[in-house]
Amino acid sequence: MSGAALGLEIVFVFFLALFLLHRYGDFKKQHRLVIIATLLAWYLCFLIVFILPLDVSTTIYNRCKLAVNSSPAESNGSDVTLAPSKQKCFKPWSYIPDGIMPIFWRVVYWTSQFLTWILLPFMQSYARSGGFSITGKIKTALIENAIYYGTYLLIFGAFLIYVAVNPNFNLQWNQLQTIGIAAANTWGLFLLVLLLGYGLVEIPRSHWNGAKRGYLLMKTYFKAAKLMTEKADAEENLEDIMEEVRKVSESIKYNHPLRKCVDTILKKCPTEYQERMGRNMDDYEDFDERQNSYPSEKSLAKLHKQVIYSVQRHRRTQVQWQILLEQAFYLEDVAKNESSATRQFVHTFHSQEPENKIIQYFYTPTVEWYWECLLRPWFYRVLAVVLATFSVIVVWSECTFFSTTPVLSLFAVFIQLAEKTYNYIYIEMACFLTIFFLSICVYSTVFRIRVFNYYYLASHHQTDAYSLLFSGMLFCRLTPPLCLNFLGLTHMDATISHKNTQPTAYTSIMGSMRVLSFIADGFYIYYPMLVVILCIATYFSLGTRCLNLLGFQQFMGDSEMTSDLIDEGKELIRREKRKRQRQEEGENRRREWKERYGNRDDSTRSRAVHTDQKESSFSETNANRSLSKYTRSNGRTERDRIELLQDAEPLDFNADSVNDDPLESDSGR
């Protein structure tokens, strides 16, 4: 089993990252390099979270071996924990051989840092560029990132000059590397505490409110009113951009050198606008002789960028509106079915997507009623209580993890109790649950946060390339300080525990933080205590109230603006519901008409065909009889027989062939 756990987790985490990226990104429409870079960033961050518990259990086993092999005389009163007996130092099932974890962590860490500080910012500018060629997009990305990269190079260069001139500093390459890591982790820890303080309160509260049907329905109405405003704004913005594109398309004809740029812009427009703005290829104009002013390539690149943004926003609001409608209809169905005497869940509208037969077999209407109307609220309440308990333990441990005598951090107490009995499965499960809960609190905030329309992770494949790359940057910057904070909470970091023990492989690649004592002994220890203030602010919704005062509409139960938006959203949902009911009623009437009269029309059509066949056969029989009659009489000529055959044919009563004058008809006969 040596190394098998590591391989299984590597494969599992890859598919987990791929699943989440497929939910938010669009593999068909977005550039492959954007998908690969975002997938790599998410994968490396999730991998660190899942592999770190294995590193902890392996480190505890190595400490046990070191304590058993060392004699009491050699220990010399150090803080090394001695094992009572050698039999307790058995290998854990997930033991990773020596030398693998340091290389693994070094590759993962430096790859993630290269992504977050160099590659992903460049790809962000490249993805947002409106250039019409690869060279143009690269040039735009380099210009936009020149200030970004130049600032870091200026700070780093000034620091190197200061170290080289000052004789009191004798820093080596490893120490410079540690300083760079400490600077990156300090920036990440600053943002980590902000996101963690929000997630520790909001996640349990959201699950508790999830048990309140009325609360969820009111919040859905509120979202509907806001989304309708955003949807109308997106449609208006798209119309304005398309009008500009139309004017540019009419002014720049097919023989203009910039016509290729215009064609590239037209390809990014929706299909209905492309058909509306079809250019006239026969209209030739010599643009050199005209004195009209044509837009430059730079202005076309700006227009191209606006078209990409407006089309993406319009498509996203359309999809989100349909999803929100389904959610509102379902919550209204739940409210209606709570008082159902039959205890069978009845939907107002049938699902537009085909359901799985296996799910239909087990998830019957009766089972759905018991889950949605009876069990689900209690499940969410119990889950909210469990999550709130975890949040209280995290807040307590963040405020007391620096205390080593006595040990006040509850996570450190749990790990040390398991370390005495060398219960590696318990150690790995405790470590995994702890770091997993911390990751959920931080990462869920990253998925929820929205910076106007520039950064927004929207599900159902509606996230743009810029937001995907930005999320990868945030994950790569937040994960290393998150793991260091976890090791500090469990006292697995020698900088926190102040013990001369073997460090974890993850801590070893970070270097000794003693190079910067004011960061190791000050910022890393006391700054996480601010999580208490942030949790209190989040509990009383101070951020939401401030945004509401600034004019950003937020859901608040005691606000008059919230009540007005709820009423507006309720009316919008009612209107959409009536529209869909009329559509379904029309489809049902057409289906009933087809089922009722479809067979009758077919039978009538078959009888008409049969009658025509009988008439034609009867006329042919009469013609044959007349022909045989006049054939037996040898006094008739061939001309008479032809006339008799013509008289035996059925008459044509079309209006064009019927003559109104009877005299002409008699003479013709």
TrEMBL record:
This is LMBD2 protein. Belongs to the LIMR family. It comes from Edolisoma coerulescens. Residues 658-669 have a biased composition (Acidic residues). Keywords: Coiled coil, Membrane, Transmembrane, Transmembrane helix. GO terms for biological process: adrenergic receptor signaling pathway. Residues 582-617, 635-644 have a biased composition (Basic and acidic residues). It is a multi-pass membrane protein.
